[in-house]
Every structure is written in C-alpha cells, then in structure tokens.
Amino acid sequence: MEVFTNIYNYNYDIITIKEEKMDTQVFNNISYGMYIVTTKNNNKNVGCFINTLSQVTSKKPVISITLNKDNYTTKCLKESKYCAISILEEKAPKELIAKFGYFSSKDTDKFKDIQWEEIKKLPVVTENICGYIIGKVINIIDVNTHNIFIIEVETTKQISTNTPMTYKYYHEVLKGKTSSKAPTYIEEKEETNKTSKRYKCTICGYIYDDEVEKIKFEDLPSDWKCPICGVGKDKFIKI
Ligand code: FE
Predict the structure, then answer these.
(1) Tell me: the pLDDT tens digits for 1-48?
(2) What distances in angstroms separate CA 2 from CA 14, 30, 42, one per listed residue?
(3) CA of 108 to the centre of ligand 1 (A)
(4) For residue 227, how far is its CA from the centre of ligand 1 (angstroms)?
(5) CB neighbours of 55 closer than 8 A, spacing ≥ 6?
(6) What is the model's pTM?
(7) Residue-wise DSSP of 110-176
(8) pLDDT higher than 60, residue 80
(9) Which one of 145, 147, 183, 210 counts the least CB within 10 Å of its CB?
C-alpha cells in the first residue's frame, strides 16, 4: 500500500502556476535579521550584508546563510571555507549596511573607516553589533541564483544585550531598500500614473520624487548624497 501520495500527481497544473500570478507580497511577512558575513581571501578582507541566516541545529550548533552566486564574497567563501557573521544591533547606522549591502568587496575596501578586529584569522565587524559567530563551511547547496552555505559554528561571542535589528525595522524605520541580489528581493512595480519627475539611484534603487521632496532634483547641491547608500547625484538616472 502506498503510504505517501504526491498531491501534484492529481493536478499537475498546480505546480505550473506562472510566477506573475503569485502574490509576492506574502513574502514580506517572513521575518529576518540583519547580518554582515566576512571572510578572507588571498589576504584581502571581504564581506557583504545578508538577511537570510537561520540556526539549523543547537547541540552541535550549525547555521545556514544564503548568498547570491554573483557576489564576490560568495566566491571567496567557497575558497576560504571559513567566515564570521556579525549580528547588527538596531542602532547600527544605515551607512554601515549600505557599505556592505550595495557595493562589491572586489573594488571597495569595506573595512576602511569602520571598527573591526581580526579574530581566528578572520576580519570581524565589531561596530554596532550584538555579537558574532565564526564557523566552517561544511556544505554548499546550489539553488538557482543563490548558494546556501551550511556552517558549523566554532566560536561565538555576545558583545552587547542591545536589541538586534530586524529586516522590518530596516525597511520601515531606516527606509532601507532590498538589494536586487538579495534572496528576498521583490521587484517594485513602477507607478505609471506619476506625472512628477522622478530619479532612481542606480546603486540602491532609492527613488527621488520632485513632487514629494519639494526641492527639484536638478536644484539639489552638487555634494548631495543618496540618503540610503550615500552615492552622489551622478549615480541617479531619470525614470
Ligand atoms: Fe542609493
């Protein structure tokens, strides 16, 4: 007697639902934290921002993190096999998140002008964090555009008891944007009924709307910076 039945055998159409028919807004209900994953490759300190971390086991602690295959940090972590993960506290400045979230370690020294320490031969971000986790990659799972790294924890340290930052807080309070490389990225629909002039930051996706801001984008001073990622006006395009 067959005990398990694949429900899709009866209606194959269920799994062929087109992605555009999905209500992707439902994914916004999933909770995440805010982390910076760092490693070392050929003596170069690299790292990037992630929100997809979860604890897999507790007795012999194992965690999982998900990184975009195109990220330079992903390539480095595949080679180094060791990483540190700093857990950001709620009062961490958005400039720190932007630095690790929107730029590549390939051409940016993300560790310049921030607090970090070398611990167990790894660069660990120690600024505005609740604590850190250091571990060894024991498995890498290939999932389309991303890799899930399974990490056996070797060292941990609690730095403060401050409230850790959640992804919801980052979005709602800091008005942060999700990088298009994040596993949780949901493409925003362009508002086609807008008549005001709007400009989009090509680095982080922030939109400057002349009507909302009261000052025309063209009239902003030349040293004006994107409020999310900090780049200049030259990185904006008219939409
Ligand atoms: Fe920006």
Answers:
(1) 555 555 555 555 555 555 557 888 898 899 999 999 999 999 999 999
(2) 22, 35, 54
(3) 16
(4) 7
(5) 61, 62, 63
(6) 0.84
(7) TTTTS-EEEETTEEEE-TTEEEEEEEEEEEEEEETTEEEEEEEEEEEEE---SPBPBHHHHHHTS--
(8) yes
(9) 145
